[in-house]
Amino acid sequence: MTIPVLTAKYRSKVAVTQLKKMYSVMSQALLYTVQEEGDYSSLYAIQDHDSASIQAWYNKALKPYIKITNECFDNKAGCWAETTKYLNGNSLNYKNGIGTNIVTFNTIDGYSVNLDAITERGIIILRVYVDVNGKKLPNTLGKDIYTFTFSDKGFVPAGRDLTDEEVNSDCSKSGNGYYCFERIMRNGWEIDKENLW
Fold first, then answer.
1. CA distance 103 to 191
2. What are the pLDDT digits (tens) for 43-61?
3. Does residue 150 belong to any structural domain of this protein?
4. Neighbours of 51 (CB within 10 A)
5. Measured between alpha carbons, how far is 22 from 109 in angstroms, rounded to an integer?
6. What is the CB-side half-sphere exposure of residue 135 using CA atoms within 13 A?
7. ∠ CA 111-114-115 to the nearest 5 degrees?
8. pLDDT band at 16 (very low <50, low <70, confident <90, very high)
9. Is 46 helix (H, G, I), strand (E, B) or coil?
10. Separation of alpha carbons 77 and 62, rounded Å
11. Number of domains in the chain
């Protein structure tokens, strides 16, 4: 085997290990909340798109169960990379996070996490973006930033209900990268070499 092939395999294993750990940390935090609440029904619902609703959810459902080193509200600098890109290379139109009225925070494990309320199928839900290597480059959806939602099924990758064709199209060089974590899970925890950072 050549050095580039060995390097790519090593980087892939490291990335998968980071992804599994991050997914476990976030899922465990929810399980603690569910034990207190009884089910996910009050956990994934959020009252409004405004900053107060998102912060209240964060303070109740995540903050008590995750070791947080820094937190930022309403697109304040310090917790997220200044700019973020789609997988196709285009820049998102937000600074210091993804969305508006957001909560961003850093964990002791080095993750940057971004919470944003969105409307999906007529209800307001929380969309979660996790940058597994913090503010370090590439700061790109589908490479080091992965997208999840809190739903009645818990903490699930964005795109969970989509077809393979829809997921693969989004997680491609011409796509946005929202559904790449779902693609990795469907691929048996394998990361395509072009999506490695």
1. 28
2. 555 777 888 888 988 998 8
3. yes
4. 16
5. 8
6. 14
7. 135
8. confident
9. coil
10. 21
11. 1
Single-letter amino acid, residue 122: G
User: Can you tell me which residue has the tokens 């139109």?
Assistant: 93
Residue 52 in domain = yes
Terminal alpha carbon distance of the chain: 21
pLDDT digits (tens, 9 = 90+) for 166-184: 999 999 999 999 999 999 9
Phi, psi of 41 (to 5 degrees): -55, -45
- CA-nearest of 157, 105, 92 to 127 is 157
Domain assignment present for residue 196? The answer is no
What residues make up the domain containing 15?
Answer: 3-190
In the chain, % helix, strand, coil (3-state, to 5) comes to 35, 20, 40
Q: Which amino acid is at 130?
A: V
Query: Is residue 195 a part of any domain in this protein?
Result: no
pLDDT band at 15 (very low <50, low <70, confident <90, very high): confident
Task: Yes or no: say if 162 and 186 are a contact pair by the CB < 8 Å rule.
Answer: no
Angle between helix 51-61 and helix 3-37 axes, rounded to 10 deg: 90
